[in-house]
Design goal:
With 174 residues, the protein is α/β, with parallel strands linked by helices. Helices cover 25% and strands 25% of the residues.
């Protein structure tokens, strides 16, 4: 019996989604408009969660003796779980990371944006009354989460007096 090796071919999802070009153009136009009007725009996302504890991590260190670590990475053996939430200032090419230890929630995501906005060393814009948030379509800042929308309204829009516009990237664009 002979085995054949078939070549796997990926299709570009843009060919399958007719509105992809339209939504891509809207995102690009929103981003360019925010630059032209000197409006603060940022890209936000939760990064890979890491267990905190005596676990094996790839990489190299120069030591005389090997460090003893757990043989398996079981979550129940962790001291905590680190959840990094990244905020990237598109105009100034600056990134900020806020690390939580409880869970990847909408409250944590909006609080991280709020902490970043009120940070004294953040690069300022002339117009501090508007904010454009670009985010993916899943996780704590999912477009379907009502809590995410409610937190943006109460914490950012009402408390800080900001006009907030949120644009979600389509899942295949990330």
């Amino acid at each position: 019996m002979t085995m054949l090796c078939d070549k796997i071919e990926k299709k570009n999802p843009r060919n399958l989604i007719p509105s992809a070009t339209v939504s891509s153009n809207i995102l690009t136009e929103s981003r360019n408009c925010s630059y032209a009007q000197d409006i603060q725009s940022e890209r936000v996302d939760t990064k890979k969660k890491e267990l905190i504890g005596n676990f094996y991590q790839s990489g190299r260190t120069w030591k005389k003796e090997a460090e003893l670590v757990n043989s398996h990475d079981f979550p129940q053996e962790a001291i905590a779980k680190a959840i990094p939430y990244g905020i990237y200032d598109l105009a100034h090419n600056q990134g900020y990371i806020y690390v939580g230890t409880s869970a990847d929630t909408s409250e944590f995501a909006v609080d991280a944006i709020n902490w970043w906005w009120q940070h004294p060393n953040r690069t300022r814009f002339q117009r501090e009354d508007k904010l454009l948030i670009l985010c993916d379509a899943g996780g704590s800042n999912d477009y379907r989460r009502r809590l995410w929308k409610r937190q943006i309204q109460s914490v950012l829009a009402d408390s800080l007096g900001l006009e907030v516009m949120v644009c979600h990237y389509q899942a295949w664009r990330i």
